[in-house]
């Protein structure tokens, strides 16, 4: 189950493209390694494993592995050391946790497409229809999606167990890994309860951000890298502050793009978050302000969000949200968080090259347009 | 994250009740250990974790941990050795994999109750209704059920990682653990495809049995115990043959009880498997025989299975299935498999006490009435 003779190349620390290539190579090797065990169970299981492989390798920015790898380098990890390929493989396994999160999230959000392809449950729903099988196609698709997501979660652990980490590094990694998984699942639970229960507060939206995105996307990946490098507690604390602040800012930027982003750049329909009725910090800010100053606007927001909005209605809501000052407030939060996060990075004992690289990644994550 | 000062007591090998108590103690300790991390995320996540804890501790025969523990003892594991509590904790973690499998299966099978309680997704559906929240209650229940099952799967790994196994034992265990999880998920995928695609062959039903039940319930738990004890390959091979044969026989007995069992004893409505249209070996045998000898009976079976049958229709189908010789054929398979499995056990190098105990467990699993 090891990566074997085709161990991934060791990317240079500041070359993002090389990290992406190496991560995808490690994932490809892992799936190749699984093929025999899966083939023994027959074509149905092979098809499910292939659907997972396609999902994982089809795209994505490899953000989490890149932060973990850079965290390791920044804590003194040596990309030329014999341990480096095992570290890279462990970092790449984050993409399998992410696959589970996305596949299950797509069921929860009833999303039909992702990155221009049908979501896993939609794909299997269609296969059911094409074969004219018995029973409900939608329920079949959901069932397969649940199991393919489970497979991804189980395989994430298998990939780490087989990465070839030494036992001490594995144990340090495992404690952070455990915390991270509980946090992302907790964040998803908070998210669906927030939507159902209608908690409109800024605090509730920030709490979801904290666990569902910030911890899981930047803070814990950096922490994982630091744990692998056996970093000292001060560096870990600085990484975590940087990761939390930049992670929340990253999600706030995402919230803005979900309402104001250019569909040609984001790849999502314009105003999608408004149609879905997502309870973001942006929306919470808008509602809070409207409640204070403009009850009619508050009413319009509450009755419009989560409905099938026409383009001109989307435009009207956008204008309203901006006029209420919610956009400025969110931009202000992004600036404050980014400044604080970068200050933590600056004062940290991170190596200069990694510091430079993390700064670039932080700026890209918080000021991106897509 | 260790079991700490309240390490579980070390049960004597042949005392099933003591094993159950120790397994439940290890699980209780694990959940207690999680409480602080979960509390930090707030009451929503606490409620989900409590739902999982209730589900896990509410009942169940602890079959998988018992087979794993007995497999370890039978391979020379010493219940008085310092390593024994870690082994017991690792065996107990099988109950968390099982919790994920059952919680997600209940969504897939649209089951409303389990062991006399609402299933997890039904429970949260009802909470949604009680609170008069927005959005669909059923979809909310499914969403929470997916995430609680994911939590169980993630926590199973965490429990093993924190059990305190030495690195070599952990590595041996991990390889079998990985195989087992892929097999049970593969078995579930085969199951839902079998039902949807209408593969009526005995071979398809046996293949589902093999992966979904036999490997996962007896073969791999024994193998896990043997791996922890660093057993030699001959004993592992004998364990696996015993486990596969007895595991399949166990499921065949379950199939018979699902159609002919006494509701007062099984706790399930009479003929439930007929109403659900389960594609068991029993049904496959009946259909195969009817196709050869009685086309009208085959037609009746195909149009009746999976429909909302009245009690007298259940009785008629039972009589028909028995008359076709399907019951005798399944009983014959159970006898052949049990004899072969017990022969593998007899010739194995298992310790005499464990051999006796496994024989008792095998007979109970294959001749039980509930």
TrEMBL record, chains A, B:
The keyword Iron does not apply. The keyword Protein transport does not apply. CDD domains: Trans_IPPS_HT (cd00685). Signal peptide: none annotated. Pathway: Isoprenoid biosynthesis. GO terms for biological process: isoprenoid biosynthetic process. GO terms for molecular function: metal ion binding; prenyltransferase activity. The lineage of its organism: Bacteria, Bacillati, Actinomycetota, Actinomycetes, Mycobacteriales. Keywords: Magnesium, Metal-binding, Transferase. It comes from Nocardia aurantia. Belongs to the FPP/GGPP synthase family. This is Geranylgeranyl pyrophosphate synthase. It comes from the Bacteria. Its cofactor is Mg(2+). InterPro entries: Isoprenoid_synthase_dom_sf, Polyprenyl_synt, Polyprenyl_synt_CS.
């Amino acid at each position: 189950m090891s990566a074997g003779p085709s161990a991934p190349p060791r990317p240079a620390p500041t070359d993002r493209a090389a990290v992406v290539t190496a991560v995808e190579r490690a994932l490809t090797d892992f799936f190749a390694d699984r093929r025999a065990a899966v083939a023994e169970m027959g074509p149905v299981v092979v098809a499910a494993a292939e659907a997972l492989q396609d999902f994982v390798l089809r795209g994505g920015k490899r953000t989490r592995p890149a932060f973990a790898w850079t965290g390791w380098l920044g804590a003194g990890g040596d990309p030329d050391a014999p341990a480096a390929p095992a570290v890279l493989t462990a970092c790449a396994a984050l993409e399998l946790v992410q696959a589970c999160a996305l596949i299950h999230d797509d069921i929860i959000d009833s999303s039909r497409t992702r990155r221009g392809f049908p979501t896993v449950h939609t794909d299997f729903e269609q296969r059911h229809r094409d074969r004219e099988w018995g029973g409900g196609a939608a329920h079949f698709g959901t069932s397969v999606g649940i199991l393919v997501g489970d497979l991804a979660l189980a395989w994430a652990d298998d990939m780490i167990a087989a990465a070839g980490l030494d036992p001490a590094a594995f144990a340090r990694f495992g404690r952070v890994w455990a915390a991270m998984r509980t946090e992302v699942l907790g964040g998803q639970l908070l998210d669906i309860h927030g939507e159902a229960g209608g908690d409109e507060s800024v605090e509730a939206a920030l709490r979801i951000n904290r666990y569902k995105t910030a911890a899981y996307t930047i803070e814990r990946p950096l922490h994982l890298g630091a744990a692998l490098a056996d970093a000292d507690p001060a560096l870990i604390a600085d990484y975590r502050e940087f990761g939390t602040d930049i992670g929340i800012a990253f999600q706030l930027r995402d919230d803005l793009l979900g309402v104001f982003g250019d569909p040609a750049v984001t790849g999502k329909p314009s105003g999608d978050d408004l149609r879905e009725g997502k309870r973001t910090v942006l929306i919470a800010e808008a509602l809070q302000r409207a409640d204070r100053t403009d009850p009619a606007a508050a009413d319009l927001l509450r009755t419009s969000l989560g409905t099938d909005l026409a383009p001109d209605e989307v435009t009207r809501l956008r204008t309203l949200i901006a006029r209420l000052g919610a956009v400025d407030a969110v931009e202000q939060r992004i600036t404050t968080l980014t400044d604080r996060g970068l200050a933590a990075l600056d004062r940290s004992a991170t190596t200069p090259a990694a510091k430079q690289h993390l700064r670039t990644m932080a700026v890209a994550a918080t000021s991106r347009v897509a």
